[in-house]
Structures are given as structure tokens and as C-alpha cells.
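seq:
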Amino acid sequence: MNNLIYLIIDSARYDHFCRAKTPVMDRLGRVEKRYSFAGWTSPSHFVYLMGLTPHLSPVGVFASEIYKLDYQKWASRIGVKKTTMAEFVPEFSLPRFLKKLGYATHAKVSMPIINPRTILSQYFDSYRLMDRYDNFPGMIDEIGFTGGAPSFYFLNLGEAHYPYRISKEELPPLEGEQGVFKRIDDRFMGAPSCADEQMAERYFNVGHLNRFREKQIESIEYIDGQIERLLNKCPAGTHLIVTSDHGELFGEAGYFGHGPIMHEKVFEVPYLEASL
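struct:
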């Protein structure tokens, strides 16, 4: 059976992914525009851990059939003869399904909102919240493959999520939903406190939003460079899925962020799948 890596670049929207220079991922195959089932980190990751992937929104078919087809694709992804939706019942859990097949299951996440105390950590042999948002390199350092049981790695990357910490530049602090994340950081990771709402409002302008947009694109490019290191550790036959949990708004229609927002850019995500 194939080793499997399911990599989610948190908040990376599709058009920003396309603007980024990603020579490493370009070698792996064509990036598709797909659609997330949700516009927020927790529910999106829950769906992915059910064994589903971002959907194509096809017309002319009965919608529920799409789930069945997605479950059937795990056969080619992991290198078995056949998989069906029924094999995921009753848990509807990808790590549980893989454990029954003999996989070692591991998760490494960047977002405190999906920390190990959440229900998402079920059925993993290990589930680790990284020490900071921008530690994809640390994840890669900890990943290892043995000659025994195949491995499943579920990775949530924070580099493309505000505040884009790969940058030395001190970006303006923001409140609202992003402030919620930063307050969670305070509890779990000891991050500095958020600025008050008046300061956030002062920074909520077109110039800063455009800068945030460029920083997300730069962050995706940084991730692409790190993926080269990841690929160098992967044995032949490893299957890789790269996607995002949702997009991000940078002032379009008066929105910034994601979550309680119904806008196409929140739901458009990149999707790349390859066997190494």
C-alpha cells in the first residue's frame, strides 16, 4: 500500500495559488479549481477527515453520487483493488479506515482551532499542534517513513494564513475573526495579544489589504520551496494531495477574512493530486 500525505495550505485561495510561482508543485501535475465544503478551518478539516476532498461542483448528476465516487478513488490513492463508501461506515473517518488497513496515522497542525483536544484528533496514532504557525519546516523534519507499515500524514500549514509569519515585516494587527484566532494563540501558544478594535479599524484600508494579498502569495511560494524537502523524504509510490480548506477575502465586496462570509473566493480552493 502507498504512503499518503494529505496537505492543507490553510486559507490559500485558488487565484492566489495560481498567481504564485510554484515550480515544485508544477512538476507534480495540473492544479484544479475546486470548492471547499465550508468557509472555515474546523468544518473543512472535519469533511476532509471524513475521507472527502474538495468537490468540482458538477452539473447533470445527482449530488449524493459525488460522495460515492470520491470514496471509490481511495483505491488508486492507497494502492488497493477497491474501496467503497460503505467501508467508511459507521465512523466516516479516513484515519480510522486507514488504521484498519494497517496504516500508521499522524497529524501535524498549525491552527489552534483544530488542536489535539478537538474531535478531529480521533483515530490518529499521533496528533501534534506545532509550536507556531509557520513551522512547515519543523513538520518535514519530524516526518519519517519506515519499511514496515505504510504511513498517513495529515498536515495543516499556517504559513498562508494571516499574519503570514514567514515575513520579517511587521504587519498591521487586525481584530474580528482574525483576532479570535490570535486570542486562541494566547491560550495555547503564548502569542502576543491583539490590538484593540480602534487600531484594527485604522489599518483596514485598501493599501494594507493589497499588502496582505501579496504576502499570502509570497507565503505560497515559500511553501512550494519547502515541499521540495518533503518530496525528498517520500519513498517511491507515496501519494500526495495538496489543497486548501478555504479561501480568504482581501476587501472584495467589503469583506476581509473568512468564516461567516458567503463569497465565491472563500470557497474556491486549489487542488493537486499526484503519485510520486
